[in-house]
Amino acid sequence: MHSHFKNKYLRYVRDYLLIACGIVSACFGLKSFLMPSGFIDGGVTGISLLISDVTGFKLSYLILIINIPFVILGYSQIGKTFAIKTAFAIAILAIFLIIMPFQPITHDKLLIAFFGGLFLGGGIGLAMRGGCVIDGTEVLALYISKNSMLTVGNIILILNILIFAVAALFLGVETAMYAILTYLSASKTIDFVVNGLEQYIGVTVISEKKDEIRQFLINEMKRGVTIYKGEGGYGEKKEIDILYTVVTKLEMGKLQTEIRQIDPDAFVVQQQISDIKGGVVKRHALH
């Protein structure tokens, strides 16, 4: 029981530490890069920056006000803990945008777009690792996807296209183009922070030399293997063993090379996996 409470306490400390680092990173990206140059990003943060640039209204208030519906939506769609963490994180971000003494770092537009997106995306990603969001776009996309045929990725893309189109209209085409660079930098950083360098690949292998491949996976790559019983559907029907394993993206090249050496005719299917729990492949801290 004591161990359970200790682990729960450590998990809370870790989550709020990640959220705090995320808030500081996002605040730095906004105050030292995007805000002084009038650049924007995608998502709810981009909408807030756009309205602030056009109307002169303070960004800290806009981020607080515009995210309120998404906190309420998060409560109904995801849960109470998520909504509380998100409300806390957004409120602290709004306060930090007022009190943090971050100064502009550079006047180079390309550096502003890249590093502004890098620090903002890093902040959003760290907050997500801590169990909340400081940009409500994903919550809205999740809600819409449940009530339509669109995927979460498609909804976020459509929303950002609309934001950049409005930015081109009010702020100019060049600013909108830099905004797209900022968004790409931010989205790639979010992906890296949330999924880590060692992204996982699910690999399905059908081969006549399945035993040799299985031994290589277990003995050389130290990976677990699941064997499915299947039946060939092309030509003569016969029973086949289907190997399935999970490796990191960095290990995929080594596995492909070895499979081709063992059996050049092996049928290999790869599928990206966002996360795994348990098993032989273990996730390292922040990866």
Order of helices and strands: HHHHHHHHEHEEHE
Distance N to C terminus: 29 Å
Described by the principal axes of the CA atoms, the overall outline is elongated
Residue share in helix: 55-70%
Classify the beta-strand content into a percent band.
Answer: 5-15%
**Overall mean pLDDT:** 87
Please summarize the sheet with the most strands.
4 strands, antiparallel
Structural class: alpha+beta
Determine the number of helices (DSSP H or I, runs of at least 4 residues).
Answer: 10
Instruction: Compute the number of strand runs.
Output: 4
Radius of gyration from CA coordinates: 23 Å
Q: What is the spatial order of strands in the main beta sheet?
A: 2-3-1-4
Low-pLDDT runs = 282-287
